[in-house]
Write a sequence for this structure.
C-alpha cells in the first residue's frame, strides 16, 4: 500500500492529505444528510398514507407491478439468478411486486393530489436542468437525452410527472415538523 501522504493525495487530485481528509469527511457528511432527508420523506409519506385513504385503480397497480417484476428480474439476472430458480419463489416475488406497486401508486396519487391542490407545477427551466443533470450523469449528449425523455409528444410527460412528485415531496418536507423518536430508524418522525 502506498503511504498516506501529500503525494498520495495529489494522485487523487487533491493538494494535501489534510485536504483529502476534509473532502472525504464532507462527502460522508453530505451522504449522511441525504440519507436522513430520504428517511424523513419516507416517514412523512407513511404518515400521510396512514391519515388519507387512497383509492387504487387496479390498472395502475397492475402496470406498476409489471414494472416492479421487470426490475426484480433484471436485479436477479445481474446477480446470476432467475425468478423461479433455486431458492426463489415466484409467488413470493409476485406478492412483493404487488405490495410495492400498491405502495408506489398510493404515494404517486397522494402526491399528485397535493400538487394539484397547492398549485404546484414544473416549469420548462426545471425540465431543462434535469435533462442537463441526467446527461452529465450518463456522460451523454444533452440533445440525445432530451430527445429520449421528450417522448413522441415532446411534452416530457414522464419526466414532468417525476419532477412534480419530487417537488411536492420536497414542498411537504419543508413544511413538516419532525420530532425525535426513540428507536426510530432515522431518529426523526413527522408529527
Amino acid at each position: 500500500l502506498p503511504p498516506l501522504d501529500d503525494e498520495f493525495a495529489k494522485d487523487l487530485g487533491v493538494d494535501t492529505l489534510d485536504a483529502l481528509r476534509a473532502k472525504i469527511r464532507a462527502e460522508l457528511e453530505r451522504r449522511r444528510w441525504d440519507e436522513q432527508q430520504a428517511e424523513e420523506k419516507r416517514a412523512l409519506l407513511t404518515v400521510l398514507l396512514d391519515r388519507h385513504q387512497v383509492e387504487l385503480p387496479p390498472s395502475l397497480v397492475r402496470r406498476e407491478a409489471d414494472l416492479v417484476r421487470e426490475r426484480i428480474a433484471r436485479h436477479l439476472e445481474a446477480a446470476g439468478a432467475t425468478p423461479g430458480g433455486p431458492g426463489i419463489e415466484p409467488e413470493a416475488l409476485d406478492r412483493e411486486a404487488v405490495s410495492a406497486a400498491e405502495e408506489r401508486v398510493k404515494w404517486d396519487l397522494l402526491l399528485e393530489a397535493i400538487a394539484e391542490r397547492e398549485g404546484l407545477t414544473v416549469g420548462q427551466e426545471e425540465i431543462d436542468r434535469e435533462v442537463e443533470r441526467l446527461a452529465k450523469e450518463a456522460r451523454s449528449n444533452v440533445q440525445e437525452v432530451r430527445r429520449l425523455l421528450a417522448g413522441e409528444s415532446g411534452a416530457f410527460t414522464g419526466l414532468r410527472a417525476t419532477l412534480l412528485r419530487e417537488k411536492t415531496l420536497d414542498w411537504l418536507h419543508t413544511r413538516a415538523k419532525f420530532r425525535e423518536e426513540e428507536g426510530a430508524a432515522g431518529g426523526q418522525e413527522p408529527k
Remarks:
- The mean pLDDT is 89.
